[in-house]
Specification:
By secondary structure, this protein is of the alpha+beta class. The chain has helices at 3-17, 25-32, 40-52, 75-99, and strands at residues 23-24, 56-63, 66-73. The chain has four helices and three strands; from the N terminus they run αβααββα. Strands 1-3-2 form a three-stranded antiparallel sheet. Helix 1 (3-17) packs across helix 3 (40-52).
Length: 100
Amino acid sequence: MNPQLKKGFLETLVLAAIKEEPSYGYKIIQDVSEVLEMSESTLYPILKRLETQGFVTTYVEAHQSRLRKYYKITAKGLKEIEKAKDDFNEIESIYRYIMR
């Protein structure tokens, strides 16, 4: 996949990974790897941007005697996913035009 095209999907992909329930970094990487390979060095800056933009909130919880940072999607993050769905329809039209 074209790296620039891939870059455009990363934030939405991360939001989709935490849409149903809060999650933590390693689990998010595992979940999105079903679709797209992602490293920690890619994920954590994305999570920081999403938090800064108000798309996710964070909290810390103990897990097996260690603290784990969880990421939870906000209402604004859910709206961003809906926007991405609308964008998909436009992108799909472009690809249909290319493929004709």
